[in-house]
Design brief:
By secondary structure, the protein is of the alpha/beta class. It is built from six helices and seven strands.
Length: 281
Amino acid sequence: MEPEQARRPPKRRRWWGFVAFLAILAVTTTLVVFAGRSSSRLSGVTAVDLAHPYAHTPADTWRTGLDGITSPAAVDIGSFKADAVAAAYAKVRQVITAARLDPAVLYRHDPQPFLALFAMDARPALSADLTQKPSKGGVASHLTKIADGHRLLGQGPRSSGTLTARATDWPNQLVIDAQFAIAYAFDTAHPEQLRGPGDLVSFLRVDESFLIRRDTGMSYGNGLWPFHTESALSSAGCAAAEDGFLAPGYTNDGDPGPGDQDAPGYYDPNHPVPTAHRCRT
Protein backbone atom coordinates (compact mmCIF):
# COMPACT_ATOMS: atom_id res chain seq x y z
CA MET A 1 0.00 0.00 0.00
CA GLU A 2 1.44 3.36 -0.99
CA PRO A 3 1.54 6.21 1.55
CA GLU A 4 -1.07 8.94 1.35
CA GLN A 5 0.08 11.82 -0.84
CA ALA A 6 1.25 14.91 1.03
CA ARG A 7 2.93 18.17 0.16
CA ARG A 8 6.46 17.07 0.97
CA PRO A 9 9.57 16.45 -1.10
CA PRO A 10 9.58 13.00 -2.71
CA LYS A 11 12.56 11.91 -0.62
CA ARG A 12 10.62 12.58 2.59
CA ARG A 13 7.63 10.54 1.39
CA ARG A 14 9.86 7.61 0.46
CA TRP A 15 11.55 7.72 3.85
CA TRP A 16 8.29 7.45 5.76
CA GLY A 17 7.07 4.72 3.45
CA PHE A 18 10.26 2.84 4.14
CA VAL A 19 9.76 3.21 7.91
CA ALA A 20 6.25 1.78 7.61
CA PHE A 21 7.67 -1.07 5.56
CA LEU A 22 10.31 -1.72 8.22
CA ALA A 23 7.57 -1.84 10.84
CA ILE A 24 5.82 -4.57 8.88
CA LEU A 25 9.04 -6.56 8.46
CA ALA A 26 9.82 -6.23 12.14
CA VAL A 27 6.72 -8.15 13.20
CA THR A 28 8.35 -11.40 14.23
CA THR A 29 6.36 -13.96 16.16
CA THR A 30 7.73 -17.08 17.77
CA LEU A 31 5.87 -19.42 20.04
CA VAL A 32 7.98 -22.05 21.77
CA VAL A 33 5.69 -24.75 23.09
CA PHE A 34 6.78 -26.18 26.39
CA ALA A 35 3.72 -28.14 27.31
CA GLY A 36 4.55 -30.80 29.83
CA ARG A 37 1.75 -32.56 31.66
CA SER A 38 2.94 -30.92 34.85
CA SER A 39 6.09 -29.29 36.08
CA SER A 40 8.10 -31.04 38.75
CA ARG A 41 7.75 -27.73 40.55
CA LEU A 42 3.95 -27.97 40.37
CA SER A 43 3.11 -31.66 40.57
CA GLY A 44 2.91 -33.99 43.53
CA VAL A 45 2.68 -31.13 46.04
CA THR A 46 -0.87 -31.52 47.31
CA ALA A 47 -4.33 -32.45 46.19
CA VAL A 48 -5.89 -29.95 43.78
CA ASP A 49 -8.39 -27.56 45.36
CA LEU A 50 -10.67 -25.94 42.77
CA ALA A 51 -11.50 -23.19 45.27
CA HIS A 52 -7.80 -22.27 45.42
CA PRO A 53 -6.38 -23.48 42.09
CA TYR A 54 -3.23 -21.35 42.18
CA ALA A 55 -2.04 -22.67 45.54
CA HIS A 56 1.45 -24.22 45.37
CA THR A 57 2.17 -22.57 42.00
CA PRO A 58 4.24 -19.47 41.13
CA ALA A 59 0.93 -17.63 40.54
CA ASP A 60 -0.22 -18.05 44.14
CA THR A 61 0.71 -14.44 44.97
CA TRP A 62 0.02 -12.91 41.56
CA ARG A 63 -2.79 -10.42 41.05
CA THR A 64 -6.01 -11.05 39.16
CA GLY A 65 -6.35 -10.20 35.48
CA LEU A 66 -3.72 -7.74 34.27
CA ASP A 67 -3.32 -6.08 37.68
CA GLY A 68 -0.01 -7.89 38.06
CA ILE A 69 1.45 -6.19 34.96
CA THR A 70 2.81 -2.82 36.06
CA SER A 71 4.46 0.17 34.40
CA PRO A 72 6.60 3.01 35.76
CA ALA A 73 5.30 6.53 36.11
CA ALA A 74 5.09 8.05 32.63
CA VAL A 75 7.76 10.63 31.74
CA ASP A 76 8.64 12.52 28.58
CA ILE A 77 10.38 10.23 26.05
CA GLY A 78 11.62 11.76 22.82
CA SER A 79 8.82 13.74 21.20
CA PHE A 80 6.23 11.99 23.37
CA LYS A 81 5.13 13.93 26.43
CA ALA A 82 4.34 12.10 29.66
CA ASP A 83 0.60 12.06 28.99
CA ALA A 84 1.19 10.50 25.55
CA VAL A 85 3.44 7.84 27.11
CA ALA A 86 0.74 7.11 29.70
CA ALA A 87 -1.78 6.76 26.86
CA ALA A 88 0.59 4.34 25.10
CA TYR A 89 0.81 2.20 28.23
CA ALA A 90 -2.99 2.17 28.45
CA LYS A 91 -3.28 1.20 24.78
CA VAL A 92 -0.92 -1.75 25.18
CA ARG A 93 -2.84 -2.90 28.25
CA GLN A 94 -5.97 -2.87 26.09
CA VAL A 95 -4.19 -5.02 23.50
CA ILE A 96 -3.00 -7.56 26.08
CA THR A 97 -6.49 -7.71 27.59
CA ALA A 98 -8.05 -8.31 24.19
CA ALA A 99 -5.46 -10.91 23.21
CA ARG A 100 -5.24 -12.86 26.45
CA LEU A 101 -8.38 -12.24 28.55
CA ASP A 102 -11.31 -11.23 26.33
CA PRO A 103 -13.96 -14.02 26.25
CA ALA A 104 -14.60 -13.25 22.58
CA VAL A 105 -11.02 -14.28 21.82
CA LEU A 106 -10.63 -16.93 24.52
CA TYR A 107 -13.77 -18.92 23.76
CA ARG A 108 -15.16 -17.72 20.42
CA HIS A 109 -11.71 -17.28 18.85
CA ASP A 110 -12.83 -14.00 17.30
CA PRO A 111 -9.78 -11.81 16.51
CA GLN A 112 -11.75 -8.63 15.78
CA PRO A 113 -11.57 -7.09 19.30
CA PHE A 114 -7.79 -7.50 19.07
CA LEU A 115 -7.35 -6.30 15.48
CA ALA A 116 -9.48 -3.21 16.06
CA LEU A 117 -6.87 -1.78 18.43
CA PHE A 118 -4.14 -1.55 15.77
CA ALA A 119 -3.44 1.01 13.08
CA MET A 120 -5.67 0.52 10.05
CA ASP A 121 -2.61 -0.06 7.87
CA ALA A 122 -1.28 -2.75 10.21
CA ARG A 123 -4.43 -4.87 10.21
CA PRO A 124 -4.21 -6.68 6.83
CA ALA A 125 -0.77 -8.20 7.49
CA LEU A 126 -1.62 -8.91 11.13
CA SER A 127 -4.91 -10.53 10.15
CA ALA A 128 -3.09 -12.73 7.63
CA ASP A 129 -0.58 -13.72 10.31
CA LEU A 130 -3.41 -14.77 12.63
CA THR A 131 -4.79 -17.15 10.00
CA GLN A 132 -1.51 -18.96 9.37
CA LYS A 133 -1.69 -22.71 9.96
CA PRO A 134 0.35 -23.94 12.94
CA SER A 135 3.83 -25.21 12.18
CA LYS A 136 5.06 -28.54 13.48
CA GLY A 137 6.60 -28.19 16.91
CA GLY A 138 4.88 -24.93 17.78
CA VAL A 139 2.57 -22.27 16.47
CA ALA A 140 3.07 -18.54 16.09
CA SER A 141 0.19 -16.72 17.76
CA HIS A 142 -0.66 -13.28 19.07
CA LEU A 143 -3.78 -14.63 20.80
CA THR A 144 -4.76 -17.02 23.57
CA LYS A 145 -7.57 -19.28 22.39
CA ILE A 146 -9.01 -21.84 24.79
CA ALA A 147 -9.46 -25.25 23.18
CA ASP A 148 -13.08 -26.25 22.61
CA GLY A 149 -14.55 -28.23 25.46
CA HIS A 150 -12.53 -26.50 28.18
CA ARG A 151 -13.40 -23.62 30.51
CA LEU A 152 -11.46 -21.55 32.98
CA LEU A 153 -12.39 -21.44 36.64
CA GLY A 154 -14.29 -18.43 37.92
CA GLN A 155 -11.29 -17.05 39.79
CA GLY A 156 -9.96 -15.85 36.44
CA PRO A 157 -6.37 -15.69 35.11
CA ARG A 158 -3.56 -14.06 37.07
CA SER A 159 -0.54 -12.12 35.82
CA SER A 160 2.94 -10.86 36.61
CA GLY A 161 5.08 -8.53 34.51
CA THR A 162 6.02 -5.04 33.36
CA LEU A 163 5.53 -2.53 30.57
CA THR A 164 8.42 -0.25 29.61
CA ALA A 165 8.52 2.62 27.11
CA ARG A 166 11.61 3.53 25.08
CA ALA A 167 12.54 5.90 22.29
CA THR A 168 13.46 4.80 18.77
CA ASP A 169 15.87 6.18 16.17
CA TRP A 170 12.87 7.41 14.19
CA PRO A 171 11.04 10.66 14.96
CA ASN A 172 7.50 10.50 16.35
CA GLN A 173 7.74 6.82 17.20
CA LEU A 174 7.69 5.07 20.56
CA VAL A 175 8.16 1.42 21.52
CA ILE A 176 6.40 -0.24 24.44
CA ASP A 177 8.04 -3.48 25.62
CA ALA A 178 5.81 -5.93 27.49
CA GLN A 179 7.32 -8.77 29.51
CA PHE A 180 4.77 -10.85 31.38
CA ALA A 181 3.38 -14.22 32.38
CA ILE A 182 -0.28 -15.18 32.68
CA ALA A 183 -1.58 -18.21 34.58
CA TYR A 184 -4.83 -19.86 33.49
CA ALA A 185 -6.65 -22.19 35.93
CA PHE A 186 -8.91 -24.71 34.18
CA ASP A 187 -12.08 -26.30 35.47
CA THR A 188 -12.40 -30.08 35.72
CA ALA A 189 -15.11 -32.50 36.78
CA HIS A 190 -12.55 -34.83 38.36
CA PRO A 191 -10.01 -32.92 40.44
CA GLU A 192 -9.29 -36.06 42.46
CA GLN A 193 -7.70 -37.61 39.37
CA LEU A 194 -5.10 -34.86 38.94
CA ARG A 195 -1.49 -35.34 40.05
CA GLY A 196 -1.04 -31.74 41.18
CA PRO A 197 -1.73 -28.09 40.27
CA GLY A 198 0.46 -28.38 37.17
CA ASP A 199 -2.27 -30.54 35.64
CA LEU A 200 -4.75 -27.71 36.16
CA VAL A 201 -2.84 -24.42 35.82
CA SER A 202 -1.19 -23.50 32.51
CA PHE A 203 1.35 -20.69 32.14
CA LEU A 204 1.83 -18.39 29.16
CA ARG A 205 5.09 -16.44 29.11
CA VAL A 206 5.33 -13.55 26.63
CA ASP A 207 7.89 -10.94 25.57
CA GLU A 208 6.44 -8.57 22.99
CA SER A 209 6.92 -5.05 21.71
CA PHE A 210 4.56 -2.55 20.12
CA LEU A 211 5.37 0.49 18.00
CA ILE A 212 3.36 3.71 18.34
CA ARG A 213 3.60 5.87 15.19
CA ARG A 214 2.33 9.40 14.86
CA ASP A 215 3.14 11.86 12.08
CA THR A 216 1.23 15.09 11.81
CA GLY A 217 2.19 15.38 8.15
CA MET A 218 0.36 12.29 6.88
CA SER A 219 -2.10 9.70 8.12
CA TYR A 220 -0.46 6.58 6.68
CA GLY A 221 0.63 4.15 9.35
CA ASN A 222 -0.39 6.26 12.34
CA GLY A 223 -1.35 4.28 15.42
CA LEU A 224 -0.26 1.03 17.04
CA TRP A 225 1.81 -1.63 15.24
CA PRO A 226 2.87 -5.09 16.43
CA PHE A 227 6.66 -5.17 16.49
CA HIS A 228 7.85 -8.42 18.04
CA THR A 229 6.30 -11.37 19.91
CA GLU A 230 8.03 -14.29 21.58
CA SER A 231 6.18 -16.67 23.86
CA ALA A 232 6.23 -20.03 25.57
CA LEU A 233 3.78 -22.34 27.30
CA SER A 234 4.27 -24.63 30.26
CA SER A 235 2.01 -27.19 31.93
CA ALA A 236 -0.33 -27.09 28.93
CA GLY A 237 -1.88 -29.60 26.56
CA CYS A 238 0.56 -30.51 23.79
CA ALA A 239 -1.89 -31.50 21.05
CA ALA A 240 -3.99 -28.36 21.58
CA ALA A 241 -0.91 -26.12 21.64
CA GLU A 242 0.32 -27.42 18.29
CA ASP A 243 -3.09 -26.58 16.82
CA GLY A 244 -2.88 -23.05 18.21
CA PHE A 245 -5.05 -23.52 21.31
CA LEU A 246 -4.58 -23.59 25.08
CA ALA A 247 -5.70 -26.64 27.05
CA PRO A 248 -4.80 -27.89 30.53
CA GLY A 249 -1.90 -30.22 31.18
CA TYR A 250 -4.21 -33.04 32.23
CA THR A 251 -5.14 -33.56 28.57
CA ASN A 252 -1.69 -35.01 27.86
CA ASP A 253 -1.24 -38.77 27.89
CA GLY A 254 1.57 -39.53 30.28
CA ASP A 255 4.91 -37.78 30.18
CA PRO A 256 5.36 -35.94 26.84
CA GLY A 257 9.13 -36.11 26.85
CA PRO A 258 12.29 -34.51 28.26
CA GLY A 259 12.61 -30.88 29.12
CA ASP A 260 13.40 -28.47 31.91
CA GLN A 261 10.02 -27.40 33.18
CA ASP A 262 11.56 -25.62 36.13
CA ALA A 263 13.35 -23.03 33.98
CA PRO A 264 12.43 -19.73 35.72
CA GLY A 265 11.67 -17.97 32.46
CA TYR A 266 8.37 -19.84 32.23
CA TYR A 267 7.10 -18.02 35.31
CA ASP A 268 9.41 -15.05 35.88
CA PRO A 269 9.36 -12.20 33.31
CA ASN A 270 12.76 -11.07 34.58
CA HIS A 271 14.27 -14.09 32.80
CA PRO A 272 14.40 -14.64 29.02
CA VAL A 273 11.62 -16.62 27.38
CA PRO A 274 12.77 -20.28 27.41
CA THR A 275 13.46 -22.12 24.19
CA ALA A 276 13.05 -25.72 25.37
CA HIS A 277 10.40 -27.84 23.69
CA ARG A 278 8.85 -30.68 25.61
CA CYS A 279 5.99 -32.00 23.49
CA ARG A 280 8.10 -33.76 20.85
CA THR A 281 11.40 -35.58 21.30
